[in-house]
Amino acid sequence: MIYLDHAATAPPSRAVLEAQWPYLTQVFANPSSAHGPGRAARAGLDAALTEIAGVLGCRPGEVVLTSGGTEADDLALLGVAAAAPRGRHVVTTAVEHPAVLETARALGAGALGEPFRVDEVGVDGDGVVDLAALAAVLTPATTVCSVMLANNEVGAVQPVREVAALCRAVGVPLHVDAVQAPGQLGVRLDDLGADLLSVSAHKLGGPGGAGALAVRGAVPLAPMVHGGGQ
User: Fold this and answer.
1) Could you give phi then psi for residue 207, rounded to 5 degrees?
2) CA dihedral 164, 169, 170, 173 (to 10 degrees)
3) Are 29 and 38 in contact (CB under 8 A)?
4) Where is the Aminotransferase class V domain (predicted)?
5) Which of the four pLDDT bands, split at 50, 70 and 90, describes residue 230?
6) Which of 27, 34, 209, 215 falls between 20 and 30 A from 82, CA-CA?
7) pTM of the full structure
8) Strand 211-215 vs strand 63-66: parallel, antiparallel, or unpaired?
9) How far apart are CA 181 and CA 103, in angstroms?
C-alpha cells in the first residue's frame, strides 16, 4: 500500500520512535517525583519543552502540552473565555476546523453560562478570510479571535499577520490554529503576531496523542482540567 494521507496523519518517523523509546522503557517515572528516576524524567520533559518553545517562538513556560490539536484549540478558546470573558464575544471564520468552530458554537450555546455572541466571518472563492469583514466585527470588547494558519480541507493559507494587526489595534487576543502548518509554514508565535497557537505532533511524523498550545505570558488562560501539580 502507498499511503498518501500525510496531511491528515503522518506515520511516525524512525527518528521519533528512536528518541521516544528510552522514555517508554527506562525514563518513565513521574516527572513530579523527587527521586532519581523522577528527576531524570523531569530533565527529559524540560528539554522537550525547551525544544518545542524554540520552534514555536516562545518561552518554555509558555508551552502547554496537550493530547493533540483538538484539546489545544478547545483550551485556547474556553480558557480565554473563562478567564477574561469581557464582552462575551468570539470572532472566528466560517472555514475553521471543527475543533474551533464547535467550541465557539458551544460558547454561543452557553457552555460557560451566559451565551457568547459568535461571529463566523466569511471567506472569498480561494478560502481566504475577508479582512474587511473581520475588521468590522472586531471590537475592544471581543473576548478572543481564532483564525487558522492553513486550511485542512483546501489548503488556503490565511493572512495571519494582517489578522494579528487588526486584533492588536483593538486589544483582542488572537488564537491561531496552526495544526496543519508545521513542516510547510513557519509557526513561530512571535513571527505571526499570535497570542495563542495550537500544534499537533502527528501531522509531521511525531507520536499520536501529543500536541501543544503556546500561550503568550500576558494572556489570561483558565485551566479546563483541575488537579495535579503539572
Assistant:
1) -75, 150
2) 30
3) yes
4) 2-229
5) low
6) 209
7) 0.95
8) antiparallel
9) 21
